[in-house]
Amino acid sequence: MFNFAYGSNMDWEQMRERCHSARFVGIALLPKHRLAFTRRSENRGCGVADAVPDEDREVWGVVYEIDLRDVGSLDASEGFRPGRARNAYRREERHVFAGGEKGRPLMVSVYFAEPQESPPPPNSEYKRLILSGARRWHLPDKYIDELEQIEVAD
Fold first, then answer.
1. What is the structure's pLDDT at 82?
2. Partners of 2 in beta bridges
3. Sequence-ordered list of residues with C-beta below 8 angstroms from that of 105, at least 6 positions apart, any chain
4. CA-CA distance, 93 to 79, in Å (whole number)?
5. How far, in Å, CA of 34 to CA of 54, rounded?
6. pTM score of the predicted model
7. CB-based burial of residue 50 (10 Å sphere; 0-12 exposed, 13-18 middle, 19+ buried)?
8. Is 74 helix (H, G, I), strand (E, B) or coil?
9. Do β-strands 23-40 and 89-98 pair in parallel, antiparallel, or remain unpaired?
10. Among 117, 110, 137, residue whose Cα is nearest residue 35
11. Helix, strand, or coil here: 116?
């Protein structure tokens, strides 16, 4: 399965801990979405990433290939259980553009948050994980600059 990570799962160490089979495929662009922090993580105690619809924006991220045996582990990490009425995130299939090129669509699974009312901003550690992944995988400099502007709670 191909998974598009745009938040803390871009951090290689975190992703490998959650999914031992994870293999980096490349960077990609999710069009018509923007990065937002719409949920409070019970585990982290801060706001966590979501990709929300926005016709004028785009979200860069990382595509990993994950063995099916690790999908349940990743689902659990994201607070998603198929068939449960309420989840923290939902897993959906979407097209992203490999390398940001419109002529290279790729079908991936993406986790989208179930937004909460008035979530807090992320903390500095969560922001560090996002930036660590963005830099490691060489997301576009302009996008990394945007990530650096994320306001934190602490």
1. 79
2. 65
3. 95, 96, 97, 98
4. 17
5. 6
6. 0.95
7. buried
8. helix
9. antiparallel
10. 110
11. coil
| Mean per-residue pLDDT of the chain | 95
SS (H, E, C) 46-66: CEEEEEEEEEEEEEEEEEEEC
* 53's tokens: 């619809």
Q: Could you tell me which residues come within 8 angstroms of residue 137 by beta carbon, excluding any fewer than 6 positions away?
A: 10, 24, 27, 62
In this predicted structure, what is the pLDDT of residue 40? 95
Q: What pLDDT, in 10s, does the model give residues 6-33? A: 999 999 999 999 999 999 999 999 999 9
pLDDT in tens, 35-88: 999 999 988 999 999 999 999 999 999 999 999 999 999 999 998 987 777 889
101's tokens: 């090129």
pLDDT tens for 102-132 read 999 999 999 999 999 999 999 999 999 999 9
Long-range pairs for 51-59 at CB < 8 Å and ≥24 separation?
51/6, 51/110, 51/112, 52/115, 57/32, 57/33, 58/29, 58/30, 58/31, 58/32, 58/33, 58/34, 59/6, 59/29, 59/30, 59/33, 59/34, 59/35
Residue 18 CA to residue 129 CA, distance in Å, equals 14
